[in-house]
Amino acid sequence: MLIVNVGSNMERSQYIQVNMKNWDERVEAHTQDNGKDFYDIEDFLAGKSTLYNIEIEELGNVSGKSMLHLQCHFGLDTLSWARQEAKITGVDFSPKAIKYAINLASKCELSADFICSDVFDLPNILDSQFDIVIATYGILCWIPDVYRYMNVVSHFLKAGGRFLLIDGHPFLDMFEFNEESEQLEIKYSYFYANQPEECDCTTSYANKEYKMKHNKTYQWSHDIDSIITAITGNRMELLSLKEYPFAVYQKYPNMVQNKKGQWIFSDGKIELPMLMSVKAKKKI
User: Fold this and answer.
1) Which range of residues forms the domain containing residue 148?
2) 240 bridge partner residues
3) Model-level pTM?
4) Dihedral sign for Cα atoms in the order 23, 85, 50, 32
5) 226-271: pLDDT as tens digits
6) 3-state helix vs strand vs coil in the chain, percent to 5
7) Which residues contact 276 (CB under 8 A, 6 or more apart)?
8) What is residue 36's predicted lDDT score, i.e. its pLDDT?
9) Number of domains making up the chain
């Protein structure tokens, strides 16, 4: 069993409060016209789904299934699952994100519940269990304690229920793009560190034109060993671990889109693991 100590609850709360201010501001950045390439709200309102093939193929038919979507941002994916006739609840720690999500649901006349809560506080707020718990894209770097996170996932899963995690591959998160050399350079540790990395996010991945006022964030790295140990140590059985040689957005400037709309490195010579999907089942 792996138990990770990330400091006192107060320290953890301070980190999360800083990150929440950043993500509150990102709602504004991501819902502007300059964020349209990543979050096309007009297309979504017209009926387009924001789901990728990975999660659709991994979960299959979700009609009638109860689903819990952790870290749902302002709800586009959550509401896309609602269009798949899932009975879904979206959770995010950003009040502005949840407010926007509720307004979107009303505009689309879609049925979905939304809760504003930090993931770790959710068991004190929500008294339900679900057929499926999902957490997709840009998830674990905001989590100080992956073991405790998976304990929350397990808490909300029914016996036999499924958990799906899709996120950036921790190997790729070791790198940073050097603008002078136009090459990737190793800057961050692959393995978990007790203290988070303090980052200066002056813009957002979805809107490079927007200048963030709350630009400071705290992020954590989690290696695959820690992730799998946290899952299996919290009453879940690992069903699959898959790695993918593409990303769903332009993580680095030297990436281009292929014919499938996937982001790969422009030279195309070497394939690196960029995404991973982990599927597990709650033990009966």
Assistant:
1) 9-282
2) 279
3) 0.93
4) negative
5) 999 999 999 999 999 999 999 999 999 999 999 999 999 988 777 8
6) 30, 25, 40
7) 165, 166, 167, 168, 169, 170, 224, 241, 242, 243, 244
8) 82
9) 1
Return the top range by mean pLDDT from 75-79, 181-185, 195-199: 75-79
Under a CB-based contact definition with an 8 Å cutoff, are residues 134 and 23 in contact? no
Rounded to whole angstroms, the Cα distance separating 248 from 38 reads: 10
CATH of the domain at 109: 3.40.50.150
| pLDDT attached to residue 266 | 86
From CA 235, how far away is CA 248, in angstroms rounded?
A: 31
Show the tokens assigned to 57.
């193929």
- Six-digit token string for 7: 């400091």
In this prediction, residue 2 has a pLDDT band, given cuts at 50, 70 and 90, of very low
Identity (one letter) of the amino acid at 242?
K
**Does 167 map to a domain?**
yes
Other CB atoms within 10 A of residue 178 CB: 11
Taking all residues of the chain, what is their mean pLDDT, rounded to a whole number?
92
Residue 3 lies in a domain: no
For residue 276, the SS3 value is strand
For residue 177, the cross-strand partners are 184
> Which of 22-26, 95-99, 160-164, 184-188 is predicted with the least confidence, judged by mean pLDDT?
184-188
In a domain, 70, yes or no: yes
Q: Give, in order, the Cα–Cα distances in Å from 154 to each of 133, 150, 158, 162.
A: 9, 6, 8, 9
Q: Within a domain: residue 2?
A: no
Amino acid at 1: M
